[in-house]
Amino acid sequence: MWPILLCSIVALAIVCERLWSLQTKRIAPKNLVSQVWQWDRGGQLDAKRIQDLRRGSPLGRLLAAGLANRQADRAVMKEAIEEVGHHVVHELQRYLVALGTIAAISPLLGLLGTVLGMIQMFSVINTEGLGNAGMVAGGIAQALLTTVFGLIVAIPALIFHRYFLGHVDDLVMTMQQEALKMVEVMHGQREREQSGAN
After folding, report:
1. How many domains does the chain have?
2. What is the 3-state secondary structure (H, E, C) of 128-170?
3. Is 39 within the bounds of a domain?
4. Do the domain assignments include residue 132?
5. Second label for 2, Cα 20 to 30 Å away, from 20, 38, 55, 102?
């Protein structure tokens, strides 16, 4: 029971932390690309703004990676964004492997507790006989409790693990779309400026 209890505490801590950290407004704030576009149009997009953008949110890190290469062509900007994107995705998935592991091992720990309890019960029956059927039934019920508690921990852990994986995928898709939108906007503006100069 103690390992199952420990698993439940760790799973609860991970779920609370991920619910807090994976809020959409913290990961991909709305209108960030339009804010960057306004800064660029107003000539306010300097190194300090890019640094603030990088520190502000994971989406900001992607946009800052592209903006650091905004003088290069579109392919270089996209490559810089993708490189930072791999690190951002890894951070978004933090602790999810541990949560998935807890979801997988909790029923096994419960089953192990049940098997050990049953072995102990049969050892008692072997030495003392079946004398009291009520006591034997109570011992079997007590042995099965570890399986029940293992499942009680595993089922919510598995549900949250799947939910967080899907949510991270949605966030990554949103960030990719926003970053690509910024690349298109920046290069679209540059092309218009160059055609106007000629």
Report:
1. 1
2. HCCCCHHHHHHHHHHHHHHHHHHHHHHHHHHHHHHHHHHHHHH
3. no
4. yes
5. 20
